[in-house]
Amino acid sequence: MKRFTAFFLTLILLFSLAACSNRAGQEDTSLNTESAKEESIANNETDTSNNILVVYFSATGTTKSLAEYAADILNADKYEIVPDDPYTEEDLAYYTNGRADREQNDSSARPAISGGVENMQKYNTILLGYPIWHGQAPRIISTFLESYDFSGKTILPFCTSHSSDIGTSATNLHSLAENANWLDGKRFAGGTTREEIERWLSDLEIKPSQAANEQKQTGVFDFDTKTVLLNSGYEMPINGLGTYSLHGDECISAVKSALKSGVRLIDTASAYGNEEEIGQAIREAIDEGIVKREEIFVITKIYPGSDMQNPEESIQACLDRLNIGYIDMMLLHHPDPNDVKAYKAMEQFVKDGKIRSIGLSNWYVKELENFLPQVNIALALVQNEIHPYYQENDVIPFIQEKGIVVEGWYPLGGRGHTSELLGDEVISDIAEAHGVSSAQVILRWNLQKGVVVIPGSSNPDHIKENTELYHFTLSEDEMNRINALDRNEKHDWY
Ligand SMILES: Cc1cc2nc3c(=O)[nH]c(=O)nc-3n(C[C@H](O)[C@H](O)[C@H](O)COP(=O)(O)O)c2cc1C
Question: Is the CB–ligand 1 distance for residue 136 below 6 Å?
């Protein structure tokens, strides 16, 4: 009854505040628990721009760093529970009957929170992180849970501690948000790595927030962000660097030059024999502040024969050679008698959080029809030879209609054929009309057909030029003129 009256009074208060257009809350960040709950209920604006919220309380920073990993991995919003009255070192000294001890001994203690979550309604999944205090969650977590309506939301607790397990600390919270769907929580030690958090979330099949992606359709190229949303939930850049013939220092400087020019997709393979150099270039670029790991997308492939006979070993070897944490995308390089077995091994690495997306390379309609029913995780990508003289106009729509992204290798015709293709009259003509190079026209033609491009080059000027594909558009007529150049002429054996 008391609670009902408080609710009613708060509603009246809220309405009068609204009528006065007085955003008093903006000046006083201290949010009373009941009013926070009511504000969240009263606020009907449902902005679905993000649906995961990582909430945490952290007195000494341990839980905070894990919460930051989780938010980053999940592309989620973050909310730190900040006490109105911050905890001093003295407050935290345990077994001194200090403030923290007293609060933990008093089940009705509800330390006040400064500020609040702006629009709790828009979140459907809440990660809730806290340190263990005397075997339980700090009482301020109770304050938080009693402040909002969690009906229908999923709550995933996690905690850090010296040694205690999560124990009853999470289950004892259930009664404070009865209508939430509580998942089993997990305890982490201080110093837990980002990879461990990533594995935990991937085991639970918690995918990155669809948030910003919600308006995005899988497989549709976004020319503003220069990315495409894969069916795995990850975004992939639509232009990158192919590294087939790059080795040693030349490879390292080409990759670094590409990253400096804004290239965010690097394509390699175990068969190229350059994964170590690529990994080194990426680590150097990260150390030099050119990019962050999460900003780039690295594709590698395992080869037929012994690689696919022992797929776990060969996949792990790629991870070890690249040495950049996870791999964004791994492909099977060609069909092989062991390809289904190798794909299933890649599926396990996805489940373990070591690979994010998987696919195939050099698979055509017949091979795909045979392969697809045998695997569990959908292919995110197929990479095949595609250029104006070998257009694969039957294969591309077949793949794209299945929600799989297509990537073309040899976009500029491949070794021994590039000058003929770049000099092609139709292409040179269109290039001249737009004031761009023939290479740019061909790459743009691919992008407009929904084909990701990975031209290879070690020349910094060419690498840069190959990224400048977004300031002009080919007309339908120009696209058709290039489409008419198809000769079904393969420039390699597979
Ligand atoms: C008042 C208090 C009580 C604690 N009780 C426990 C405990 O029962 N078991 C345990 O393993 N750690 C305990 N700890 C240690 C914290 O759980 C651990 O240091 C935690 O990682 C701190 O996280 P934070 O930096 O995010 O606040 C306690 C710490 C404090 C301040």
Answer: no
DSSP secondary structure string, 222-238? ETTTTEEE-TTS-EEES
Helix (H/G/I), strand (E/B), else coil: 296: coil
DSSP 146-157: TTS--TT-EEEE
Provide the token pair at 333.
Answer: 């390089």
Phi, psi of 483, rounded to the nearest 5 degrees: -55, -35
CB 244 within 8 A of CB 281: no
pLDDT tens, position by position, 171-215:
999 999 998 889 999 999 999 999 999 999 998 888 776 554 455
The count of structural domains within the chain is: 2
Encode 251-276 in three state secondary structure.
Answer: HHHHHHHHHHCCCCEEECCHHHCCHH
Ligand 1 and 169: CB distance under 6 A: no
Per DSSP, 241 falls in state: E
Instruction: List the one residue out of 33, 42, 7, 35 whose CA is nearest residue 146.
Output: 33
Q: Domain with 102 in it: what CATH number?
A: 3.40.50.360
Say if ligand 1 is within 6 A of residue 190 CB. Answer: yes
Residue 388 amino acid letter: P
CA atoms within 13 A on the CB side of 455: 29
How confident is the model over 30-82, as pLDDT tens digits? 334 444 444 443 333 334 445 899 999 999 999 999 999 999 999 899 999 99
Task: Copy the structure tokens of residue 326.
Answer: 């996870």
Contact 363, 384 (CB under 8 A): yes
Q: Which of 190, 212, 234 is the last residue of a domain?
A: 212
Residue 328 within a domain: yes
Residues carrying an active site annotation: 272
420 to each of 271, 382, 424, how far by Cα in Å? 27, 26, 6
Distance CA 380, CA 486 (A): 26
Determine the residue of 54, 65, 161, 166 to mutate for testing ligand 1's pocket, defined as the one with the most ligand atoms within 8 A of the Cβ atom.
161
383 part of a folded domain: yes
Do 193 and 227 belong together in one domain? no
189 shares a domain with 48? yes
Q: Using CA atoms, how far apart are residues 328 and 276, in angstroms rounded to an integer?
A: 16
CB atoms within 10 A of CB 473: 12
Confidence at residue 210, expressed as pLDDT on a 0 to 100 scale: 58
pLDDT of residue 14: 39
What per-residue confidence (pLDDT) applies to 5?
42
Q: What does DSSP say about strands 221-222 and 77-80: parallel, antiparallel, or unpaired?
A: unpaired
